Recover the amino acids of this structure.
């Protein structure tokens, strides 16, 4: 597959489950190495994880024995040059709207707040690229909506490049400058749809209710639909009904 | 019981018992904790290979092994301390391995992506995340240690609480026997509470998840 991501853009990656969206993110993040081909940032091949990329995981991945502040300082502690990790952590916690919650432990925070802490942590290492793996999939719809608007504001303020993996077409259109649609296995980029809307417009109007939004959604859904059907077929071919029975036979 | 305390019999027996239990238990902590952390954290494949062996060894009834220990180590303190150590190390070792292996992989992934060194991942992620399970092992170990202590002292010893109970029973000093039993029970409860307290201090964050 071939995909160019430009500096400062917000790109969403949509695709049927199992097509390798998360694998793609792991590759960019340097958490796994490609079987073939290469991933480059500014012409440098990625050889491992680095501080130029911050990752936000779907499952928050907060350390439950550290409070919000200490969770954000976690990636900074290793970096001896950082004079005052706590100062940086406070700055980013306030950026994600969590001032006053520094002392709270993850179990004392709601799902949305936990993900805000995780975003602050990813931003705290001051990466050029923010990699987000279905970050809002585990929060409720209203919180999700608020997190989306806040994420637009944060990307606008920090000028980060964002790679955002999602299942949700609406989320992809609402957030991204470009939406890349992946095919069912083997996952390659099928098409890239431009969303020619400014961030300001997204924040200040009810973008989701416009005809433009609906038109793009329809277009993307048409593209995605075949792939979802195909991926279902792949799954069915792999696991035949008898096998399912066999697996459940241990009762 | 007061008379036993006054003439010092109880204290002497308590001391020799506690010495045995703490040495055995301490040895087990010293060996099993680092070993468990290493096996679970750094040598996963090796751990998988030796796990069946560990399971078999841990299942071997220690009372059946006691004669072997006596043959090799004599009837003195060494064999008693060794058998206590032997019994205690299994729950600690196995729980430590389980604790480390069950750490949420996404936490490790997160740490790796933050460019954190392997050693720091170990000390800052794996160890704290596994502590609740490790402490369960330590608590089980302490119970086993007392079990084995009394057993070993009853089987072959000339001092200690187990010996005192056994000897009192043989010469029909029933109150002395009861005094011994009550003392053992009190120590068991005390130790258990001490470890529970430590466990709570270390894993406050786990509490709310369990409720």
């Amino acid at each position: 597959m071939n995909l160019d991501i430009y500096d400062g853009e917000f790109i969403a990656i949509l695709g049927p489950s199992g097509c390798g969206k998360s694998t793609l993110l792991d590759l960019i993040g340097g958490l796994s190495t490609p079987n073939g081909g290469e991933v480059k940032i500014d012409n440098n091949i990625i050889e491992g994880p680095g501080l130029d990329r911050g990752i936000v995981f779907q499952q928050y991945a907060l350390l439950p024995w550290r409070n919000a502040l200490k969770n954000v300082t976690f990636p900074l502690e290793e970096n001896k040059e950082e004079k005052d990790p706590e100062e940086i952590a406070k700055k980013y916690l306030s950026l994600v709207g969590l001032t006053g919650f520094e002392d709270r432990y993850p179990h004392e925070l709601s799902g949305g707040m936990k993900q805000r802490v995780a975003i602050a942590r990813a931003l705290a290492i001051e990466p050029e690229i923010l990699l987000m793996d279905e970050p809002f999939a585990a929060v409720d719809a209203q919180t999700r909506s608020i997190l989306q608007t806040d994420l637009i504001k944060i990307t606008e303020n920090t000028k980060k490049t964002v790679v955002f993996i999602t299942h949700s077409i609406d989320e992809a259109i609402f957030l991204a400058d470009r939406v890349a649609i992946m095919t069912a296995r083997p996952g390659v980029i099928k098409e890239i749809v431009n969303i020619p809307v400014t961030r300001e417009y997204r924040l200040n109007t009810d973008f989701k209710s416009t005809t433009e939004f609906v038109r793009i959604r329809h277009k993307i859904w048409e593209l995605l639909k075949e792939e979802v059907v195909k991926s279902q077929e792949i799954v069915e071919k792999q696991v035949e009904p008898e096998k399912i029975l066999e697996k459940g036979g241990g009762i | 019981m007061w008379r036993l305390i006054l003439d010092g019999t109880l204290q002497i027996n308590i001391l020799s018992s506690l010495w045995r239990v703490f040495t055995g238990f301490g040895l087990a902590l010293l060996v099993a904790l680092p070993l468990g952390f290493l096996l679970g954290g750094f040598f996963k494949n090796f751990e998988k290979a030796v796990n069946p062996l560990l399971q078999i060894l841990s299942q071997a009834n220690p009372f059946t092994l006691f004669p072997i220990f006596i043959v090799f180590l004599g009837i003195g303190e060494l064999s008693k301390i060794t058998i206590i150590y032997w019994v205690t190390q299994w729950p600690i070792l196995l729980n430590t391995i389980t604790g480390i292996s069950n750490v949420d992989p996404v936490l490790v992934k997160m740490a790796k992506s933050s460019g954190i060194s392997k050693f720091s991942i170990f000390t800052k992620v794996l160890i704290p995340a596994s502590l609740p399970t490790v402490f369960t092992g330590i608590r089980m170990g302490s119970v086993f240690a007392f079990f084995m202590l009394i057993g070993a002292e009853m089987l072959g010893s000339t001092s200690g609480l187990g010996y005192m109970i056994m000897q009192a029973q043989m010469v029909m000093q029933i109150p002395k026997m009861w005094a011994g039993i009550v003392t053992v029970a009190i120590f068991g409860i005390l130790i258990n509470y001490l470890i529970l307290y430590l466990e709570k201090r270390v894993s406050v964050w786990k509490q709310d998840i369990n409720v």
Summary: Chain B has ten helices and no strands.
